[in-house]
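User: Assemble these into one structure.

Assistant: Restating your components, then the assembled model:
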Amino acid sequence: MPEKLFHNGYGYFNESGDEYVITRPDTPCPWVNVISNGIYGLIISQAGSGYSWREHATLNRITRWEQDLIKDQWGKYLYLRDNATGRYWSVCWQPVRRQPERYQCRHGLGYTIISSLQEGIEASATFFVPVDDPLEIWIVRLRNLSSSTRHLSLFTYLEWLLGVAPDWHREFHKCFFETEFQESLGGMIVRKHLWDLPGSQWNRSWGYVAFLTSSPPPGGFDCDKEAFLGRYPYGSLVSPRAVVEGSNLQSMGRGVDAVGCLRVDIELAPGEEKGVVFRLGAVEEPVEAGRLTAKYGDLQAAETALTTARCFWRELLSPLQVKTPDLAFDILNNWWLKYQAISGRLWGRTGYYQPGGAFGFRDQLQDSQVFLLINRPELTLKQIRLHARHQYRSGTVQHWWHPLSEMGAVTESSDDLLWLPFVFIAYLKETADFSALDVVEPYLDGGEGTLYEHCVRAINYVLSKLSPRGIPLIRGGDWNDGMNATGLQNKGESIWLGHLLHWILVEFAYLATKKGDWELGTRYRTQADRLKEALNRHGWDGEWYIRATDDRGTVLGSKTSSEGKIFLNPQTWAVLAGVAPPERARTAMDSVERLLEWDYGPLLFWPPYTRVIPSIGYLTRYAPGTRENGGVYTHAATWAILAECQLRHAEAAYRLYCKINPIRRGQDPELYRVEPYVTSGSVNGPHSLHPGQGGWTWYTGSATWLLKAGIEGILGLRPTYAGLVIDPCMPPEWEKVKVRRHFREAVYEIEIENPHHTGQGIAGVWVDGNPQEDNLIPAFADGGVHKIRVILGPTKKKPHAY
Ligand code: GLC
């Protein structure tokens, strides 16, 4: 029997950890998969609900969906009807919701397979997106386990949206649909003669053609919702007329409430199995619908495409693999964090909790660091270049922008622009590709500059917005979007932003000098020193750093504050950015452990705000203890792990890691409730109505950062310009760890032994059997595989650390 890992009563991981198997449809919340190839994407829950999009999940949604996570009743559905008895059910639980005899939903990397057994028919539906075409494919297999021949009909059902979601004025939108069944195509073509993209002229058609086709070809169809469901007020998704009666009205035309119903009739002898392939997509030209239908023309072609997609994901994620004594740690790092970051955050940019599609300036930049860890730095550079193109000559940037409409917003957010140099530096440390400094990109308002210049403009802009005390102004909020009113009058300051700026000034000074820009290098170094001095003079509250001051000079995050006494980010970043002197660094993190850490991780701040304070911003409007109002904000919690590692608090780092590890949290599904295989954006804090409940899964910047916390913090593999530093800070009880990581055109097979149970310190390092001077492993860049052996223990010589 294959082992069921981390079984929690609802599901478990398969033996290799790359598939999550849900065994019943009634999980405490929708447990979904976000599958995207960068152009086309779909999201599907364990019950079979969800939606599809092309390029932008909100501005270009293909199928209708409503954000009702309690009901989860919008999706693309499959009905099965036994034509002898007239009984019917749905393959994936929704929407008929009859209790199946057996049910299984397997969410994997790039695919979901839902199978069920009802009425003697074993059905399985595989949903996936081929590697580089704008469509999804469903492979449905039906097997007759009964002893008589069965005459079945398989119906699809979905509502076409074709444009901007939600199309709340439905009677209006309906007037623009054109549906057409094409026998030669084996399915339907749907157009919409209106696309109300925000910021553009309404008088235009949806820029694509949607199609839904099947093999074998359908025996019936409906393109009109009323024809399929039945007349008002009796039609419903639980008992649609076409399925109840077993026949279609073959409706099509213009001005219908457009749906996609194809009926495929199947006869199955006892024991016989047959397969049906459906293709659903959006293409620029109608001929493409035919081409893609032919390309994925039968079961075999569809199965081959599925294998290709599965191999694609495994190969993409494989370059980094770890084996530690903590299986939950390994499963996250080997597969799910990377998959979540790429499929969910970077390519799909959407989830159930936040249906999106836009790019956030700071969000996807940070996410794109994931590619550095899997030997695809060119994709990080691509992201850096994309974001550089959303910067103005002044150095400011768009807080977010929409692909397709290219609409963007400049806000008063004060930190966005600094993530450009932050991620660029990470890219350079991974690759040492200094030629990238000279890559040219345009500014949004004309002119162009090298990436180096783009970064300098960003830094200089922040430097031009310092308070009289020399601390950056918080303006319309920094990393914490919810502090959007704290400094609107250009007086309030951000201590956290000061820390981030300090890190950037120090790092960029090095780059400037390397480039021969001595004057800038010196200036940035001087400014870094001055900033550090100001932050320590005005930011220290006695036992921790304050968070900010508002426009009236009120301090946020001080022992004198009644709510919001201590915030997490200014403590973690004082350490990470090298602002805090050693004694303060320790005291600040001790305060974090004492006042912010609770059962499910470190809170973003404590206590939460219980009344609305408009002058701080909308974070005070959230229910106390949720999201940015003092919940565990996972993105920020990952920085606490890194800060503990930097201070060599191995035990604390790992304890925090375990507390926010969704696999461990998922062991208590009635409390945690959300998916155990991806990170949640936040977990409700002790002051909330449902302490410990997770939320906002998938669409969270915590995936990449938790990966970094595990690999660069706990396992201590950190790229530097000079090479790869190996400097673990792992639990003292771990005996041995293996890591396979690519670094600059070579593969490093690393074995870390911990015979003295220190979990840190470097007693010896060997490369390909040869003893090394220290723990800085050079870049071999020879395309080879190198064996690195590290023995932890008391250190004779000071190792390379931070
Ligand atoms: C959301 C935003 C992110 C921000 C965070 C904290 O996740 O997408 O940019 O940093 O909230 O407010």
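The chain has a mean pLDDT of 97.
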